[in-house]
């Protein structure tokens, strides 16, 4: 099928490449010329495992292998010229919905602009499919506008659940596909077009749910709010564990064995960041307020503040370990990305902690395998060192804040030969305290004795 993807950020590029992998002829459009130039030479403008290989593979016209979809490769091109979307049957809108400056609500200007400008190129029977995370009610409003301009085009809300770091696999093998389509005489034919687009994942066992617009929009924000709540729950337990002398990792293992609870997303530590969970729970609260249902989501305020407290606690713990002051101390921060296998530093807990320690007089050195360029743009005043050994040299304390494999696999004996003082703070509860302590380190973590 001929498909267009409007917006080539983390979501759009992955979606475009994966749709081509599923056998479709895809054009990706973005206003950012630098991004499009990179994509035209098969280079992703950000780090995402497997994506560069996928882009190169498709643009070289190879047939499917390795991705395990069983579908033949389609074609993929990128342009800044929106007119090129004309002729596609389905148009995916994948632009960002960041938090509005100084407010909790989502900034919908890119979504509104994408729908308004795409309308000029839609033909009767085309589908325009929203994938961006939006406040409930947005799809209904956009559908009304669309009906006025192109009455025979159809709007679908099809939220995306991919995780950065696993984006290619999550898109090729989603656990569920949600189609938000109004319950009218066009519902079945519209759903059939989506079934054709997603034929390979559906054949591979992905669940398919057809809902109305508001339910589809809410599925996305509810899922992210649940995940954020789960993380903040275990982090609240970590606070209690610290007060009571208990170990939150053992607690998580034990409660996670109850399959009604489950062990996933119960990793206590520095908490959640990134371009999704923090801004999505805030936008959700703002929208609930507009709908007169703010009481339903007041608990999310607590989820947010538990999460933010973790960063403050990490700084306090580091200061405590450094004998009460950062002055004259070299603090090595391992990790800048908001999570491993990503170069995304949006609302990165690691960088937030690094910046606070620097403000309090610490001589901070930040290292990360992928995210230093982005980190430098956001926090230009921090010192960055790409080489792990150099970053560790002369450290008075080492803070593991993003759990990249390079850091979780550090050898305590070898690391001890590089640093000035053997102090390690495990912000993600991923190291074995026994081996580090046995090698003479002071080991501290959030929620562990
Ligand atoms: C999240 C959701 O997981 C995706 O399903 C969703 O599609 C995406 O947002 C989105 O809205 O686009 P993502 O932001 O890529 O995906 O990252 P997650 O894997 O959810 O991690 C978010 C944060 O939580 C990270 O900072 C991570 O370190 C932290 N986390 C995660 C914990 O602190 N503890 C855990 O147990 C799990």
From TrEMBL:
This protein's UniProt keywords: NAD, Oxidoreductase
The reactions it catalyses are: UDP-alpha-D-glucose + 2 NAD(+) + H2O = UDP-alpha-D-glucuronate + 2 NADH + 3 H(+)
Domain UDP-glucose/GDP-mannose dehydrogenase C-terminal: residue ranges: 332-433
Biological process (GO) annotations? Answer: polysaccharide biosynthetic process; UDP-glucuronate biosynthetic process
Metabolic or biological pathway: Nucleotide-sugar biosynthesis; UDP-alpha-D-glucuronate biosynthesis; UDP-alpha-D-glucuronate from UDP-alpha-D-glucose: step 1/1
**Catalytic center at which residues?**
276 (nucleophile)
Q: Provide the binding site for NAD(+).
A: 30, 35, 97, 133, 164, 279, 346
State a single Gene Ontology molecular function: NAD binding
Q: Record's family?
A: Belongs to the UDP-glucose/GDP-mannose dehydrogenase family.
**Protein name, as recorded:** UDP-glucose 6-dehydrogenase
């Amino acid at each position: 099928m001929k498909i267009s993807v409007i917006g080539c950020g983390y979501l759009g590029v992955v979606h475009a490449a994966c749709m081509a992998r599923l056998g479709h002829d895809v054009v990706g459009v973005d206003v950012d010329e630098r991004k499009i130039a990179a994509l035209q030479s098969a280079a992703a403008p950000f780090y995402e495992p497997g994506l560069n290989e996928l882009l190169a593979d498709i643009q070289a016209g190879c047939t499917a292998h390795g991705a395990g979809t069983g579908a033949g490769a389609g074609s993929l091109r990128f342009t800044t010229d929106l007119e090129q979307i004309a002729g596609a049957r389905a148009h995916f809108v994948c632009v960002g919905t960041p938090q509005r400056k100084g407010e909790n609500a989502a900034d919908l200007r890119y979504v509104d602009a994408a729908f308004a400008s795409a309308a000029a190129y839609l033909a009767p029977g085309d589908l325009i499919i929203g994938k961006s995370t939006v406040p409930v009610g947005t799809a209904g409003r956009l559908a009304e506008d669309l009906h006025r301009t192109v009455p025979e085009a159809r709007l679908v809300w099809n939220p995306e659940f991919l995780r950065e770091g696993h984006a290619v696999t999550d898109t090729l093998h989603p656990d569920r596909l949600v189609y938000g389509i109004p319950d009218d005489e066009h519902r079945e034919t519209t759903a059939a077009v989506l079934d054709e687009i997603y034929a390979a994942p559906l054949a591979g066992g992905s669940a398919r749910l057809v809902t109305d617009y508001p339910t589809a929009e809410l599925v996305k924000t509810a899922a992210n709010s649940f995940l954020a709540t789960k993380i903040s729950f275990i982090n609240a337990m970590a606070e209690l564990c610290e007060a009571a002398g208990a170990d939150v990792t053992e607690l998580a293992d034990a409660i996670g064995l109850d399959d009604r609870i489950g062990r996933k997303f119960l990793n206590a530590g520095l908490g959640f960041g990134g371009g999704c969970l923090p801004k999505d729970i805030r936008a959700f609260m703002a929208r609930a307020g507009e709908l007169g249902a703010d009481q339903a989501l007041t608990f999310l305020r607590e989820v947010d503040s538990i999460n933010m407290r973790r960063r403050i606690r990490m700084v306090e713990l580091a200061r405590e370990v450094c004998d009460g002051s950062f002055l004259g101390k070299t603090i090595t921060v391992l990790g800048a990305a908001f999570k491993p296998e990503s170069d995304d530093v949006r609302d990165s807990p690691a960088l937030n902690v690094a910046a606070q320690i620097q403000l309090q007089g610490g001589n901070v050195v930040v290292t990360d395998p992928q995210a230093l360029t982005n980190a430098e743009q956001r926090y230009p005043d921090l010192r960055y060192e790409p080489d792990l050994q150099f970053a560790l040299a002369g450290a008075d304390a080492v803070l593991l804040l993003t759990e990249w494999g390079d850091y979780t696999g550090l050898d305590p004996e070898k690391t001890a030969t590089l640093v000035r003082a053997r102090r390690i703070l495990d912000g993600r509860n991923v190291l074995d305290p026994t081996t580090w302590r046995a090698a003479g380190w002071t080991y501290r973590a959030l929620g562990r004795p």
